[in-house]
């Protein structure tokens, strides 16, 4: 494990830090797309935010369903044109990326 960690520079000068917006105070996950966009999600509702990776500001936000689906969301992943949120209970919420302010249709996959 040590030899893999040696490849990374963890010093303070190696990266940047950005303050996240208040609505992401309890952010549980981050995901990037192949074209370099950064997504995060709210902890208790299925609200997805696209963030500006340089400044941390919100580029856009959209929800699964009207107002976001309540849940304990622990992670986010992007695969092709789909966004997946996982809950602490193991459910996967699947949706497409939406335009700013949109309420997207979604599917829930129960993994047991």
What does this molecule look like?
The chain has 112 residues and is mainly beta. The chain contains 1 helix and 9 strands; from the N terminus they run H-E-E-E-E-E-E-E-E-E. The protein has one helix at residues 2-5, and strands at 30-32, 38-41, 47-51, 58-64, 73-79, 82-87, 91-96, 103-104, 106-110. The strands form 2 sheets. The protein has a 5-stranded mixed beta sheet with strand order 1-2-3-4-8, with no helix packed on it. Strands 5-6-7-9 form a 4-stranded antiparallel beta sheet, with no helix packed on it. It is globular and about 40 Å long. The mean pLDDT is 89.
* Element pattern in H and E: HEEEEEEEEE
Outline type: globular
The Cα radius of gyration reads: 15 Å
Question: Helical segment tally?
Answer: 1
Strand content: 35-45%
How confident is the prediction overall: mean pLDDT?
Answer: 89
Helix content: under 10%
Placed side by side, the strands forming the largest sheet appear as 1-2-3-4-8
Q: Tally of extended strands?
A: 9
Biggest sheet statistics: 5 strands, mixed
